[in-house]
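Help needed: design a sequence for this.
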């Protein structure tokens, strides 16, 4: 097992956000967390990467406990994170944003890993903006840049929070294409996403959250066939 979460309880002050959730991700697997807004999906990812500290429960990465480690320590052991609000460095150029994603011990880009030139092949519009400041990119370009920067450290698992939110359909297709290629390169993905049509093509397993708990776990086929679950927990 690559990533295993067991009976996780996370609070914001006295608000009990995650209430004993358990989930797992295998090596090179794409798993999606679904659910309406405010049910704890983003908090789950933040708990994994160390931005919020769970009050109880456990998180194991490759069999080793990572609860209590700082975000940079967790990133350094092979977990990448793409937040919902993107958080590029607005005063740095596109290339500088990418290069800053390389881990300190990586003296040079891995020839068999993700490189600046490889991402420029995927996103030629970013290549055209190589020396442009991040603040002047469109929302779609910032999202692509954030994904690319996270992958520059060649993580073993990537946490993606709402990567297609607010993007034009053409950009959504490009993001979907990149996520599929990340998977083909053996990177596991834990994805939070609202676009059902996209995630049914990307993920092999699904967890549905409601009020801080896991209420469904199954395959894409099982999710498609369970109309009651979709209507109760996903549809407005």
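Sure. Designed sequence:
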């Amino acid at each position: 097992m690559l990533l295993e979460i067991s009976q996780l309880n996370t609070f914001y002050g006295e608000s009990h956000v995650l209430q004993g959730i358990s989930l797992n991700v295998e090596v090179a697997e794409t798993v999606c967390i679904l659910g309406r807004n405010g049910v704890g999906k983003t908090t789950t990812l933040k708990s994994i990467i160390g931005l919020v500290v769970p009050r109880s429960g456990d998180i194991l990465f490759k069999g080793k406990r990572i609860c209590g480690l700082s975000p940079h320590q967790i990133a350094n052991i092979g977990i990448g994170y793409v937040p919902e609000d993107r958080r590029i460095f607005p005063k740095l150029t596109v290339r500088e944003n990418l290069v800053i994603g390389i881990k300190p011990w990586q003296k040079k880009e891995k020839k068999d890993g993700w490189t600046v030139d490889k991402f420029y092949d995927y996103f030629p519009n970013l290549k055209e903006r190589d020396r442009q400041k991040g603040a002047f990119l469109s929302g779609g370009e910032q999202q692509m840049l954030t994904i690319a920067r996270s992958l520059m450290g060649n993580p073993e698992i990537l946490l993606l929070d709402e990567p297609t939110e607010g993007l034009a359909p053409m950009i959504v297709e490009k993001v979907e294409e990149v996520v599929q290629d990340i998977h083909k390169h053996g990177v596991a993905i834990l994805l939070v996403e609202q676009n059902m049509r996209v995630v049914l093509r990307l993920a092999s397993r699904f967890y549905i959250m409601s009020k801080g708990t896991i209420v469904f776990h199954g395959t894409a086929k099982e999710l498609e066939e369970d109309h009651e679950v979709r209507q109760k927990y996903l549809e407005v």
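Residues 35 and 209 are 5 Å apart (CA to CA).
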